[in-house]
Amino acid sequence: DILMLHLVNWYADVDGDGLGDPNDFVFACLPPDPSYVNNDDDPCPLAVDAIPNSDPNTCGCDLGYFATITDIGGNDVITACTICPPGFYCPDGLSAFPCAAGAFSDVSGAIACTFCPAGSFSAATGSTVCESCPAGSFSDVVGSVSCTSCPAGSFSGTEGSTRRERRRSVN
């Protein structure tokens, strides 16, 4: 009796979703280990299949979301897409970045931060609001990280001032 075995392409299923990576295969009679499958249908081999808020064109998450990464078999695999929290922005569907000092984000899912308007500031990264400049100080620029104290002979009597006033002499 002769036993005939057929050689077959076995595709690596790195993310464990049952779909093989068309670029990672071996030609053998049997799969080399249980992580190999007999299909090459995985368009995103380092992301599990059918993740909500994912983009199959980029194999990342939708803009405004960041990738949750899990170690599967020694590989970093996208297992979820998480909405970007306030104070952060997610411009690429992969990472969440804190807003820089002088900027803020007060919504979930931001793809960009907003610069603090004149009359306000944000000294810390990851801010969700800008603070108004206190009375006695001002900020005349957008994106300020601090307010400027009014110099001698000038004042700003209200919070959120964008300019200083000169004191007038009373005769």
Characterize the structure shown.
The chain has 171 residues and is mainly beta. Helices cover 0% and strands 30% of the residues. It contains no helices and 17 strands. The strands form eight sheets. It has a three-stranded antiparallel sheet with strand order 2-1-3, with no helix packed on it. It has a two-stranded antiparallel sheet with strand order 4-5. The model has no long low-confidence stretch (mean pLDDT 87).
Q: Give me the strand/helix succession.
A: EEEEEEEEEEEEEEEEE
- Overall number of strands: 17
What is the SS-derived class? mainly beta
What profile does the largest beta sheet have? 3 strands, antiparallel
Percent of residues in helices comes to: under 10%
Distance between the termini: 121 Å
Which range does the strand content fall in? 25-35%
Which stretches are poorly predicted, pLDDT < 50 over at least 5 residues?
A: none
How many distinct helices?
A: 0
Q: Could you report the average pLDDT, rounded to the nearest whole number?
A: 87
Assign an overall shape.
Answer: rod-shaped
In which order are the strands of the major sheet placed? 2-1-3
- Global Rg: 28 Å
Layout of helices and strands:
Elements: E1 8-12, E2 25-28, E3 36-37, E4 54-55, E5 60-61, E6 65-72, E7 75-83, E8 88-89, E9 97-98, E10 103-104, E11 114-115, E12 120-121, E13 131-132, E14 137-138, E15 148-149, E16 154-155, E17 165-166
Antiparallel strand pairs: 1-2, 1-3, 4-5, 6-7, 8-9, 10-11, 12-13, 14-15, 16-17
